[in-house]
Amino acid sequence: MDGSRVPGEDAASSGAWHRTRDGGSRREAWVKIARDIRVPNHYHALLELAGETPETAAQIEKDLPRTGATFAKQGFRLNPGEPTWRALRNILTAYAAHDPETGYVQSMNFQAAFLVLAGLDEEDAFWCLVALVTKIVPGYFSEGMAAAKLDQRVFSRLVHQHLPAVGLHLETIAPDNIVPAIISSQWLLTLFVNVLPAGATMRVWDRVFESETRAPLFACALALLEPAHDDILACDEMGETVELLQSLGQETQSDENAEEADNSAGGGAEDAAVRDADEVANVSLITRKNSEKTAEKHDTDASFSSASGKEDALIARMDAYLAGACAPLSFLKEVSRERGRRRRPSDDGLPEAVKRAVPAVTEIDELVDGLRSDLRDVVGEGALARADAE
Q1: Measured in whole angstroms, how far is the alpha carbon of residue 145 from the centre of its chain?
Q2: Which PROSITE patterns does the entry link to (predicted)?
C-alpha cells in the first residue's frame, strides 16, 4: 500500500474509485498526461522548500479540514495525522513551490484530493495537478483569470449555438453574460469536483485525461443543461435561475446525499473567482445562500429510475457532445473564433500557452482559408505552393 492511502474500508483504500468502468486503472491512465513534464526527483526537492512560504503553508493548513469535510461523504477519510492528510499537504505545498507565479489557489485542494481519491500516489497526483493547471485549464488560476473569462464567453456561445432558447433566456434575465459566468466559474474552475457525485466526476475526468483537453468539461456542462431546458425557461429571475442551475449536478445522485452536496458545491470556485471577478462572485455567494432549498424545490428527473441511471444518461449526453459540437478540435476552433471575432481587453492577459494553443481567428482569416481550400481543389496543392513561393 502506498503512502497516500488510508488503511480501512474508506473509498480511498478500498479502491472504489481506482478503476474505470471497463476495469482499467485510473492511476495508469491519468498519469500519462504528465509524461512530457515529469522531472525525476523534482517533487522531493520541492518538498525540501516547504516552510519558505509561511503564508501559503498557513492557507493550506486552513483548507485541509474543509477539504476533509467535503470528501467525507464520498467515503474518503482526511484527518490530521493520517497518510492522506500528509499527502495532500505535500502535494499542495510542492505545487506552490513549483509554480510560485500562480502559487497555491483555493480549489486546488479539492482537485488534489480528488486525484488521491482516484488512487494516485502523492507524486503522481502532484504531476497530474501540474498537468491539469498548465495543460487542461492554463491561465484559470493566474492573476486576472483571463483564460477563465475567455472560456466563460466560449461557454455562453456554445449554449447559444446548441441550446438557443436557453442562451437567449439567460441573456434576457441578466445581460453581460452574468449567469453563464456564475455557473461556468463554479463548474469549470472546479472541474466539476463537488458539483457532480464522485463517480460521475471520475468519468468526466477519464475523458479529460484521455483527450488531454478541457473539451469534456464543456460537453458535460451542455449535457447538464439540456434536460433542464424547460425548467430554465420557466425561471423569471436571475437568482431563481442560478439556484436551479446550481442544483443540476445534484440530480445525478441519490436523494440522501443531495443536501450535503448542495452545501459544499462550488465553494472552491468562488474562492478562486473573487480574485478578479468580484461581481460574479458576489452574486454567486448571495444565490448560494439559498441553495439548501434546492433539493426540496426540484424533483429528480422522472425519466431515470436510479442515481446510476441518471449518471449514465448524463455521461451519454456528454459523449454525444464530445463526438460532435464539443469534439476537441471543434472546441479549440471555437475558442480561437472567440479570441479573434469577439476580442475583449481581458484577452491581453492570456498566458502565452493559451495564445499558442488557440491563436485568434477572425472572419477574414476563415474566409481566406476557405478561398485557399477552393483554389487547392481547382489547381492542386503543388500549383498553390508554387504560387505562394512566387
Answers
A1: 14
A2: TBC_RABGAP
**85 and 197 part of one domain:** no
Write down the pLDDT at residue 296.
38
The pTM for the full model equals 0.78
Position 354 in a domain: no
Distance CA 50, CA 58 (A): 11
Report the candidate in 369, 345, 363 with the shortest Cα–Cα distance to residue 153.
345
**Residues 252, 206: Cα–Cα separation, whole Å:** 18
- For every residue of 92-155, DSSP letters joined together read HHHHHHH-TTT---TTHHHHHHHHHHTT--HHHHHHHHHHIIIIISTTTTSTT-HHHHHHHHHH
Does pLDDT of 351 surpass 50? Answer: yes
Which residues span the domain enclosing 302? 146-338
Domain check: are 77 and 41 in the same one? yes
- Is the per-residue pLDDT at 256 higher than 70? no
State the amino acid at position 183 in one-letter form. I
Same structural domain, 22 and 43: yes
Number of domains in the chain: 3
Looking at the predicted structure, is the pLDDT value of residue 286 above 60? no
pLDDT at residue 228 greater than cutoff 90: yes
Amino acid at the residue 44: H
Degrees, nearest 5: CA angle 189-191-197:
130
b/e map of 50-67 (b: 16 or more CB within 10 Å)?
A: beebeebbebbeebbebb
Separation CA 272–CA 267 (nearest Å): 9
**CATH number, domain containing residue 76:** 1.10.8.270
pLDDT of residue 312 exceeding 70: yes
Whose grid coordinates read 512530457? 36
SS3 content of the chain, % helix, strand, coil (to 5): 70, 0, 30
Mean pLDDT of 45-67: 86
Quick one: how many helices (H) and strands (E) in the chain?
23, 0
